[in-house]
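#struct-help
A.M.: can someone run this one for me? Single chain, 75 residues.
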Amino acid sequence: MLRNFVFAELYTDRWTEADRRNQKIQEERFGTTALPWYAILGPDGRIRAQTGGGEIFKDSFIEFLNQGLSETSMR
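D.P.: on it. Structure tokens below:
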């Protein structure tokens, strides 16, 4: 299932200047600085699905991935 995605990581949990910039990007783009945070963006850059901020279980993560895939293919 994960072969359908392109991965990017935005480090926000260290105390570096780059991480502070990344925290700002995450807050502005996704409305949160929660960790872990996962987002699926479509080819147009729009948010298709997002989840996180706590423990994420296998079934709910698979549901999140499916939602992101279906939202992307619908547009």
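A.M.: thanks! The chain has one domain: 2-74.
D.P.: also worth noting: The chain has two helices and two strands.
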